[in-house]
Amino acid sequence: MKNVKMTFAIAAACALTLSACTSSVPSDKKSNKADEAPTKAPAVVKVVTNGSFTLPDDVLADFTKETGMKVELLDGEESGTLDSKLILTKANPVGDAVIGLTANNIIQVAEADVFDTSVKVAGPAGADKYAVAGADGAIAYDRSDACFNYDIAYFKDKGLTPPADLADLVKPEYKNLTVIQDPSKSDTGFALLASTISQFGEAGFVDYWKQLLANGTKVDAGWKDAYQVDFTAGEGKGAYPIVMSYASSPFWTINEAGDASSTANVAGGCYPVVEYAGVLKGAKNTEGAQKFLEWLSTPKMQTVIAKENVTYPIDESAELPKGMAEFAPRPNAVKPLDAKKIADSKELWITSVTDLF
User: According to the UniProt entry, where is the signal peptide (predicted)?
Assistant: First the structure.
């Protein structure tokens, strides 16, 4: 009888409202809320780059496996404009970290309060010696030293001794053989300018540039035009057997057998180009940015960066790619200019030589 009354009561409730009925009748089917809930996407670390830094997807997948965070590399354009982009967007940063700044622009970025200096990133072994005064929050992660390269076959065929340093490039025997980049538009072009200031001083570098240009040196807008088009050993098989490029470039021209390179560095006049990274102030994923930069600082990743970007690791115990130590060893670079001095004088220096073009 008790069961009959309960059934009648439920039926009456159903007659009054459907919702009451559905809420009152017990169900044997249990709702699986875990199955119904959407899968949470992994956190993303957005890294603004200078456009040349790269890591393969399978390497980035290792970071995701270790941390549960994905990495998105954003092309921030070449280093020469990367600083402007960071400064203009600092109120609403486009990423969580930046990678690819150099001493040419690190002070401007630091003085604009772009770095989150409250985040202490453990950099690679040896990074302390590359610390820039006035650029707290920036850590060195690799070196991409700039050097003149020459086409070995050209000089052998002509019976001409390759140049040994910057002073040789203004001699008559090397007339019309050199191509460089505009220092106002190119990192390698500015590295050459800095190298001439380091070697000849602020009183003598303009005279050197006058001699260099008078000796038939061609000035291209950027590295790609100079190396890939105008260089005799480049893809374009151009007309100039000497080009301003990188100390690591001869690694790119090693033959398939791995026993020779078609290019070599001019020993004197190389300029040290240290590349820096940092966590951006106002980042949406500060923790992820810190973890990513510390991951890049490990000995394993220092080796990977050297291989994938053809650069020199800051951690000198990291292994260089096969053939690099033999054909593109770390150069004996000139003394770098002070970063603060660069920030204060860069535009004046550039104008002093571009007015000669």
Answer: 1-20
